[in-house]
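ZP: hey, is the iron/sulfur cluster complex queued? I don't see it on the tracker
AM: it wasn't, my bad. submitting now with these inputs:
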Amino acid sequence: MDIKNDLKAEALALGFSFLSVTDCSPPGSYPAYIEWLAQGHHAGMTYMASDRSRIMRQNPAMLAENCRTLLIAGLPYPMIPQTAIPASQHPTGRISAYACGKDYHTVIPSLFARLLEGRINHSLPTDSHLTFTDSAPILERDLGQRAGAGWIGRNTHLIRPGEGSYFFLAEALVNIDLEPEPPFTPDYCGTCQRCIQACPTGCILPNRTINAGRCISYLTIENRAGIPRELRSLMGNWIFGCDACQQVCPWNRFARTAMPDSALHPRLSMAFPDLLTEVQLSPEEFRAKYQQTPILRAKHRGYLRNVVVALGNAHDAAATPYLANMLEHDPDSMIRAHAAWALGAIGSRAARETLEKRLRSETDAEVIVEVKQALQAK
Ligand code: B12
Ligand code: SF4
Ligand code: SF4
């Protein structure tokens, strides 16, 4: 068997749904990335705009010495069906499918290492390789399309016929030459616009990029600051990531599920957490509950901010005592500001009384503005 077919067969055996090959030349959509930065669509992700990020994204070969071939693989994770929503007396949050299993940043590199290690110096005559997923400054989706793995949809995902978009991308750079696969040229979005219509914050742009500053995934995971007031009510109950533009994509009706023994297999119980439980988690309890999952990336402070926004959107008066306690006692002004907004959104008599009381003792200028706006909310 030749090297490529051997690697492909082993990748499938390990749970990847495909493995493709491309060279290390500059990605064709590099100018679209530069324009994205120029428009400020990377929001607070300043690492996306650093000199290193720009140089490396233009020259994937610079990532590892003497590397000439890029292997790119996809590891599927199952979507979470809406029908899985549990019957609950309390409002529930929503965690995106990719985050409900073990952290893929730890699972995928070790799988890829297993794929390569047995072969290095045997069927794969390389002495230099580097594997990564999501962590290196490269345009993974562009290179996936160039390697023939799928097309880039209007929702900006790499989509594969028969498989959809619920998969992670992972790469390995190796210092041998392998014949590149032909790029994937059809555009199977056709006239469909479902993702654009379904995006709660309207952040999908016509050139198949997004304005990340408005994307719920950015706002709930990467964003360390407050959530802009005008976006909060659009976020619904998403508290970590967002799948709205994938859920509506017709190509995901055929999404295959991850292998049953996959460490990534989402735990449905994680997908719809009880918001009144989540709002009471201490930093230690948060870390213990979500250890080894991607959710830790938001940190306790960011997660709590997201939960508070979702409680405001749930308009459930049962949340009032928890939010009132936060507004009165939380030392973090960002949390107090969001608690004030949520109380305003709930708008009950008890919520208003809490806001009025706090207005007499609050000293932070931004929180005072939030409290005043919350009192005008209804
Ligand atoms: C920064 C980042 C984010 C940001 C910005 C996302 C964005 N769309 O730009 C935020 C935090 C919002 C985010 C969210 C999510 N992300 Co993210 N993210 C990344 C990361 C690290 C960089 C992406 C990037 O460079 N963005 C800049 C824009 C300009 O580039 P781009 O999105 O790749 O778009 C390029 C193409 O669309 C291209 N293009 C447009 N038209 C055409 C046409 C052709 C023919 C070609 C070739 C190219 C092309 O132009 C762009 C510039 O090159 C990648 C990993 C990586 N290193 O690539 C993961 C990655 C894109 N994310 C991923 C995932 C899973 C998500 C979420 C689904 C998580 C969630 N459930 O919340 C959401 C989806 C949101 C969305 N609609 O994209 C996966 C996507 C897998 C897939 N099947 O596509 C990746 C690849 C991580 C991984 N290794 O699996 N993400
Ligand atoms: S992840 Fe959500 S907010 Fe972001 S582009 Fe998709 S639908 Fe819009
Ligand atoms: S929802 Fe429609 S337009 Fe959006 S990515 Fe899927 S097929 Fe393309």
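AM: back. The chain has a mean pLDDT of 92.
ZP: great, adding it to the tracker
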